[in-house]
Amino acid sequence: IIPTILFVIFSRFSIRQETRYMLLGNALLSDLIYLLFYTLSAALNAAHVHLPKEACVLLLFLLAVAYSGGLFTAAAIILDTYIAILFPLRYIAMLPPSRTKKIIVLLWMCSAAFPVIFFLVLSSTHSFVSCALEMCSVPVILILTLNGTDAVKLCFWLSTMVIFLCLSLIFCCYAILYFKTKQSGIWESICSRASVTFLMHNTVLFFYFFPLLALFVESFLRINSVIRLQTGIWVSLTVFNVLMILPKVLFPFLYGLRYREISASLKSIVRSKHLHLVS
């Protein structure tokens, strides 16, 4: 369904001129890239295909960029909703299509910056383990590299702080949004559009950040020898293969099918295909 929604967004001029749809398209594109490369990595490991070191590093880098892109864009979508509700009269002036495109470019630059720094630290400290690179498995490589130098661990925990600062900013926006709109009565009904939107955003945030929280807790426990290496590998495999995939599966249904314009376009595509088959 992700390619279909992307086709609808990029093929309709009126849709791709709106900030929320441009951000949605960017998030879906990031998720699609991540799913494709992670599926490729899993298939190669299942087939016992050993990639060259350079190819494995490139694959891991692209996975990190794609996942960071989806994470940052999900946060940008929520901030966009915050601005649209609190500043409705100035919203179009604050976020015209030209500025939104620059924001998307900035999101991709930030998404690439963190993996670049992390990989440079790994490369300079020679923390890449040759046996892990032969497998090219993200969970295994993460487990083994975190047993490396203090520089690698520092880089890891700095990334953790950035992610949780981002999460704190989003929750602050939610709190301000709730108290600013509390008197308007839009929160009275649990089935109101505002309540459903709030629940939808929180669901996406939970599925994006909970896997990272689980991964960080597992890494902290393993670094301090609270759990064994084998247990850490199993937890990491569960996080990467299940928990990190869930938001990318739910995202198009929670956002793409809920927006009226996209939903109407998808229905028209389905109807046209049905009529074509009948004729």
From TrEMBL:
Residues 2-255 form the G-protein coupled receptors family 1 profile domain. Keywords: Membrane, Transmembrane, Transmembrane helix. The chain crosses the membrane at residues 21-38, 58-91, 103-121, 127-147, 154-179, 199-221, 233-255. GO terms for molecular function: G protein-coupled receptor activity; odorant binding; olfactory receptor activity. GO terms for cellular component: membrane. Pfam families: 7tm_1. It comes from the Eukaryota. Gene3D superfamilies: Rhodopsin 7-helix transmembrane proteins. SUPFAM superfamilies: Family A G protein-coupled receptor-like. It is found in: Membrane. InterPro entries: GPCR1_Superfamily_Member, GPCR_Rhodpsn, GPCR_Rhodpsn_7TM. This is G-protein coupled receptors family 1 profile domain-containing protein.
